[in-house]
Amino acid sequence: MAQTWTDTTYKLDGSEMTIVTTHDRFNQVSLYIPGYSLDGRGFSVYFGIDHIELLEDLVDKLKGMATEVHLQNSPPLLPRAAKVPELVN
Question: Superkingdom of this entry's organism (predicted)?
């Protein structure tokens, strides 16, 4: 259950320290981003087993984006040279 009355958007740039914590008693896992890496605006997001498909979809989309970026940054493939048949005397 969300515990705020306002929606907040955080854009993580990859430099933040992130910690994944398991809460076995509650069948949850949390993603914790400490406040000291975000000027005191740290937070935790808790996920339960009901979120598995959502998280898999998120990861699949990120992987798709990573593949697309990789392909855009790769040098173009050069066509293979056709094999010239040897002449027999």
Answer: Bacteria
